[in-house]
């Protein structure tokens, strides 16, 4: 998204420069890209292990470790960071330079980690290591990011049509006021605007977000309807009356 916002990639790039987008959607680790670069600056996605999700015939999902077996890699491992380090080493041109942000496990992990470090130190000039404070980079967290979901009900007891009663900007003004884009932490509940906590939503059947709380006036009307027999008689009377009116119209047209 950041690339798109800066005009890199997408249709806008092709139209403005006449060239294809430099952004490729692919698994960067799948193979040697073939190209070599003077400089590589990167922050690979953090996370120790790589895995793929496999869905069997019964619809059950299972995760399997993903190892990259490449001839240009010094070690075969499911550790994403070690694989990216090896991938970057392949991408560098002679006398090329790289600056890479990696988690601490790259510095001390045994097995494949030891192999990669030995090959790096022997074949590359690993001249500088900047140890940053812990907690500086925002990692994923076990606690859910969603704390509250705010819902505005502009449906219940609201009636709009495409021709006679169209919804306009005036009908959205109360929602805009409740949304409070300047400071979402200061939102306040109203008749049509309510907040539901993460725990409340998770406790709902199928984690459904189809939530409503206002009483539908049209449903109240159905509670006061007469018996079905009475309704049927009224419908028959209405149809007979309408038929009689059509017969009168037909007779008048015939006389003309």
Topology (elements, then pairings):
Blueprint: H1 2-5, H2 11-17, E1 37-42, E2 51-55, E3 61-65, H3 80-91, E4 92-100, H4 105-108, H5 112-123, E5 148-152, H6 173-179, E6 193-197, H7 198-202, H8 217-223, H9 228-255
Parallel strand pairs: 1-4
Antiparallel strand pairs: 2-3, 5-6
What is the overall silhouette? elongated
Instruction: Work out the helicity level.
Output: 25-40%
Q: What series of H and E elements makes up the topology? A: HHEEEHEHHEHEHHH
Counting structural domains, the number is 3
**Structure classification:** alpha+beta
Share in β-strands: 5-15%
Give the termini separation: 73 Å
Mean pLDDT across all amino acids? 81
Radius of gyration: 33 Å
Structure description:
The structure is a single chain. Strands 1-4 form a two-stranded parallel sheet. A two-stranded antiparallel sheet has the order 2-3. Strands 5-6 form a two-stranded antiparallel sheet. It has 3 domains: 31-123, no CATH class; 148-222, no CATH class; 226-256. A hairpin with a 5-residue loop joins strand 2 and strand 3. The chain contains 9 helices and 6 strands. The chain is of the alpha+beta class. Residues 52-56 have low confidence and may be disordered.
């Amino acid at each position: 998204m950041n690339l798109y916002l800066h005009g890199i990639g997408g249709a806008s790039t092709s139209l403005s420069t006449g060239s294809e987008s430099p952004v490729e959607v692919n698994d960067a680790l799948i193979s040697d890209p073939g190209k070599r670069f003077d400089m590589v600056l990167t922050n690979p996605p953090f996370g120790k292990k790589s895995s793929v999700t496999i869905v069997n015939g019964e619809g059950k999902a299972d995760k399997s470790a993903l190892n990259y077996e490449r001839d240009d890699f010094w070690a075969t491992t499911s550790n994403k960071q070690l694989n990216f380090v090896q991938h970057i080493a392949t991408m560098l041109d002679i006398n090329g330079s790289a600056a890479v942000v990696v988690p601490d496990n790259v510095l001390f992990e045994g097995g494949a980690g030891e192999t990669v470090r030995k090959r790096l130190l022997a074949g590359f000039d690993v001249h500088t290591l900047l140890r940053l404070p812990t907690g500086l980079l925002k990692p994923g967290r076990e606690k859910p990011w969603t704390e509250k979901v705010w819902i505005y009900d502009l449906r219940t007891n609201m009636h709009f049509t495409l021709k006679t009663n169209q919804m306009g900007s005036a009908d959205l003004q109360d929602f805009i006021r409740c949304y409070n884009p300047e400071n979402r932490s200061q939102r306040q509940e109203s008749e049509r605007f309510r907040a539901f906590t993460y725990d409340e939503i998770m406790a709902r059947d199928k984690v459904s977000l189809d939530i409503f709380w206002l009483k539908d006036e049209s449903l109240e009307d159905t509670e006061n309807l007469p018996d079905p027999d009475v309704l049927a008689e009224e419908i028959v009377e209405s149809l007979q009356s309408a038929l009689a009116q059509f017969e009168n119209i037909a007779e008048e047209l015939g006389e003309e």
